[in-house]
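Lab notebook, bench 4. Still working through the backlog of constructs that have no structural model yet. Next entry is a single chain of 359 residues. Request: give me the structure tokens for it.
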Amino acid sequence: MGKTKKIAINTGGGDAPGLNAVIRSATLAALNRGWEVHGIRRAYMGLLGEDEIVPLTRDAVRGITHMGGTILGTTNRGNPFTRPIQQPDGTVEAVDCSDDVIAAFREHGFEALIAIGGDGSLRIAHDLYKKGLPVVGVPKTIDNDIEGTALTFGFLTAVDIATEAIGRLHSTAQAHERVMVVEVMGRDTGWIALFSGVAGTADVILIPEIPYEIEKVSEKVVERDRAGRRFTIVVVAEGAFPAGGAPVFKDPKTKQLGGICEVLAQEIAERTGKDTRAIALRHLQRGGMPISYDRLIALRFGAAAIQSVEDGDFGCMVALDPPYVRRIPLDIAVSRQKRVPVDGDLVATARALGMSFGD
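Model written out:
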């Protein structure tokens, strides 16, 4: 039995299918060691007095493995290093409250934090670790863009949802001889678009790693028409952009991606004369139950994180290196964004199948 007796768990950033499975696994693995477990609600807000710190008992985590979302809540605006604080004159200023987080963590008697999050949340965890907080990271994001792990949990569920949507659009596209432009999430990477586009037998796949030319995309549509295939499925990652151009933002101030499908649909319609429709899946990809493989990854990550705490190995992240779950330093995990290799076998497979990347 390890020395650590009281630990905390939090979830930060965007939600992903499998978060509750990690919470349950880590909680039970800790309780079975005789430890005390608490959940910090909404990332670090529970430590900053804006939310609660709740005990995680066997009853609290019973029956949650299959549930989407997170019982601890989450936020993508919870960076304690740049916490927005209203000043006496009414203005809002970003204030570094990281010392307050660490002080509250110690006041509660916590001896380790299991931080479950994507690249932003893990970067915060790494910065807190450098200030003395004992942290073990767990990689979570549907975008699959965290360095050092083969997969992040939540990714394959998002791919599954997108693939099903693409499959459903095939029949209506064929019936009406339309072009369907399907926008999927992924931020600055094309993992979801590539996996779902290939699995869903799309005709065009556009990803940020391969800037596209709208002329090449339109040529693919016309080529299919001439061959008697009078419909086209285009799958586009939200961060995709044309050669020499820039991504489309729903809100340029916050740099929130979204809307590329509408832009593409209009351009394709103008160049080809085809009836073209835009469909953005957006948060449908985050919702609902995780598929079995994501549950397995999440459960393995939770147990591995507790083992890391017992071993006193902090400042690390658990990572999938099939067939094993290993640990890597957090500084490696947050060193860069994992992007689709343009010379990888899945891109080569798509090209061999006749799929266009607009290049």
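Notes after review: Residues 6-153+290-322 form a domain with the Rossmann fold fold (CATH 3.40.50.450). The chain has two domains: 6-153+290-322, 159-286+341-352. Flag for follow-up if needed.
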